[in-house]
Predict the 3D structure of the following.
Amino acid sequence: MQAVLHKILIYIGLRKPDPADAQPNFNTRLMHGINKIALMVFVLAIVIYFVKMMLR
């Protein structure tokens, strides 16, 4: 469980990856950046949806 949490924190950018890991190229970094933005927009949409449901 701790390993999964560690990987999530690395992916989000709160922790630096191990230096033993290979450096990703530009395309991989760009893809991960777009995925982070999409994930944040999705979570924001879910929060807004639940807030609207609670206010009804």
Q: What stands out?
A: The chain has a mean pLDDT of 82.
